[in-house]
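subagent[fold] <- orchestrator: predict structure for attached chain, return tokens only, no commentary.
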Amino acid sequence: RGAGGEGGAVLSPVAPEEVMVVMNGLPGAMGREVAGACLRRGFRLAPVALTGSRFGGSSIEVNPEPTVEEATDESVTVELVDAGGGPEQVRLAAVRIQEAAKAAGCGSVVCVDYTHPDAVNGNAEWYAEHGFSFVMGTTGGDREAMMRTVAESGVHAVIAPNMAKQIVALQAALEDTARSFPGAFEGYRLTVTESHQSTKADTSGTAKAVVRALNELNNEFDASDGEALERRITRIRDPPKQVEFGVPDTALKGHAFHTYTLTSDDGSVTFALQHNVVGRRVYAEGTADAVAFVAAARQAGTDQKVFSMVDVLKAGAMQ
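subagent[fold] -> orchestrator:
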């Protein structure tokens, strides 16, 4: 069905086979999972993608089911280019992507980013320079600078700390509650613990967003103070401690466990909120939804350029 745009207008969907996805962040597990989801949706996968210096110059076989690593009839070979390998190298990568899209009859190129917080701003500038729409799933980096990059370039982008639609819906509901009942939890203390696989370099963007909403309810600190916000979040990346927190042994390499607790001053009342995710598929499917949405927004030429996953959810553009 069509995706909702500005003012509730319906965006005409783009046929999946007309969308070429550039999966930046391979051969990482999240990159594999998202690439598989995009192939299952019928999107084309670009034969070139950006990666870090460790994997630049290599190639990878990508399958609809990410657990399959060998070449199959359904696999796509993707050459990985070091994003820090120099201006000419990344320029040529963009040219090759544009040529591949033209040869495949794809009128839309969408870059998906699951790389590293240190790389996201440079990557966003590369997307903008070459007119590529993008979905930013990597958290961290300078988000304000990223927004400026999009605004100045005119590309369309979905930028969000979480791509799982159920968690997005929960986060939106908390934000609505905070706007409707500010200070309702005045005097309650907030504690937050989040656990992700040890390879996640930064504090969860979802945890930060939820803490901002909850802080509107308890007014515990200045939400504009980034350091104060970080101090409210206990981050677990050590496997033994993750197991103590309730993470199954089998999920240590791919999980997202979050617990938020509001406790009254005297300790007599406690409210707890928890969302635990094992694996990555829920995020990958949401990312594929975002790809379809941003391709439709670009095709429609919407004045709004930057979207969140709440926009995608409100549009009913999620499968």
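orchestrator: received. Logging for downstream: The mean pLDDT is 93. The longest helix spans residues 281-300.
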